[in-house]
Specification:
Elements lengths: L4 E17 L2 E14 L4 E6 L12 H17 L9 H5 L6 H19 L3 H5 L5 E3 L1 E4 L5 H14 L3 E5 L6 H11 L5 E4 L9 H5 L9 E2 L7 H10 L4 E3 L6 H10 L4 E4 L7 H13 L4 E3 L6 H11 L31 E3 L12 H7 E8 L1
Parallel strand pairs: 5-6, 6-7, 7-8, 8-9, 9-10, 10-11
Antiparallel strand pairs: 1-2, 1-13, 2-3, 4-12
Helix pairs in contact: 1-3, 5-6, 9-10
The structure holds 2-succinylbenzoate and magnesium ion (MG).
The site of magnesium ion has 7 residues, from loops.
Length: 368
């Protein structure tokens, strides 16, 4: 494809409420957007890295730096490169998957707009709407948590995920079960806050019939996840541990997980995400689409991915209003617990120009 240049744009999006996990609290989402410009169309990619390297080693300034110095120049040197060749051209640069995913997504969006094809169609979607869950942060008290969950269930969310950490695990799960009953689809996410020495504490969650426990142990620790999976009844799901299709294959073989959270940014892009989906499907391992507090740009692509056949569990693909009073795009609105999959070319959505202006803090144009 003929790129005339790439824009790196920094925006700041205030969340409707602080989001607390075992690794930190986010109140303003600092997002790096990548815009790929061709003579006939432009495409957008949202980099999911956070401002600080706490969820993973990547962070916004680091992503902008590696894009500017290494990734964008490597792409500029290959004038006829198509989106499905991006990963191979960027492979000599080690790691930096979130940065790679963002430029690949922007090029995919531009190419698909030129071709008049939706991202959902390109990836192999089989549904026109996807069932949605919501990720509920750690709160200061149980009453606050119950209020938040009550509100989300009222809105129609089909599955609740509670963030947990040592000291905030069995009690919040028990409180939600007692108040809302056993029929609520409920799962927890520890973001690697436990060690294998906590196996007995994690086994106390067994009685609550959770769908899964997400990433209880450290990202690099597949072996201990496999041990833990034998010590508890709740199915283990991996998030941070899975950065590639090879990681997913290893985790499945070792018995380190029986469910996979697929986040396109974490694994280096939507095309790698599809490969992980295919591998898991071949092994009867359910997958679901994770989230990183995306704006409408990243959300549109996640919803397209979540419409693939192996995504058999509700994802962290919540409506725009769960995150932002005003989204960057036309808002995604929950209807009957589902979000519609965009049907237009590429992402099917684009930033609203006035909104984009309001939230932009920096832009940088790299001419090819
Ligand atoms: O671990 O899934 C996670 C948000 C930021 C970083 C990591 C995670 C999350 C979430 C929220 O759980 C998912 C979402 O609603 O976007
Ligand atoms: Mg997670």
């Amino acid at each position: 494809m003929k790129l005339t240049g790439v824009e790196l744009r920094r925006i700041e999006m205030p969340l409707v409420a602080p989001f607390r996990t075992s690794f930190g609290t986010t109140t303003v989402r600092e997002v790096l957007l990548v815009r790929a410009v061709t003579p006939g169309a432009e495409g957008w990619g949202e980099c999911v890295a956070d401002a600080s390297p706490l969820y993973s080693s990547e962070y916004v300034d680091g992503c902008a730096d590696v894009l500017r110095r290494f990734l964008v120049p490597a792409i500029a040197a290959r004038p006829d490169l198509r989106p499905d060749g991006v990963a191979a051209v960027l492979a000599p640069v080690k790691g930096h998957r979130m940065a790679k995913a963002a430029i690949e997504a922007a090029m995919l969006d531009a190419q698909l707009r030129l071709d008049g094809v939706s991202l959902a169609g390109r990836l192999g979607a089989v549904r026109d709407r996807v069932p949605c869950g919501v990720s509920v942060g750690i709160m200061d008290s149980l009453p606050e948590l119950l209020d938040a969950v009550d509100g989300y269930l009222d809105e129609g969310y089909l599955r609740i995920k509670l963030k947990i950490e040592p000291g905030w695990d069995v009690e919040p799960v028990r409180a939600v079960r007692e108040r809302f009953g056993d029929d609520v689809l409920l799962q927890v996410d520890a973001n690697a806050a436990y060690t294998l020495a906590d196996a007995r504490q994690l086994a106390r969650l067994d009685e609550f019939d959770l769908l899964l426990v997400e990433q209880p142990l450290a990202a690099g620790d597949l072996r201990r996840h496999a041990e833990l999976a034998r010590l508890i009844r709740t199915p283990v799901c991996l998030d941070e541990s899975i950065e590639s299709v090879e990681d997913a294959a290893d985790a499945i073989m070792l018995g380190a997980c029986s469910i996979v959270n697929i986040k396109p940014g974490r694994v280096g892009g939507y095309l790698e995400a599809v490969r992980i989906h295919e591998l898991c499907r071949a092994h009867d391992v359910p997958v679901w689409c994770g989230g990183m507090l995306e704006t409408g740009i990243g959300r549109a692509a996640n919803v397209a991915l979540a419409a693939l056949p192996g995504f058999s569990l509700p994802g962290d693909t919540s409506g725009s209003n769960r995150y932002y009073a005003a989204d960057l795009t036309e808002p995604f609105v929950l209807r009957d617990g589902h979000l519609d999959v965009p049907t237009g070319p590429g992402l099917g959505v684009a930033p609203l120009p006035h909104r984009l202006e309001e939230v932009t803090v920096d832009t940088e144009w790299i001419r090819f």
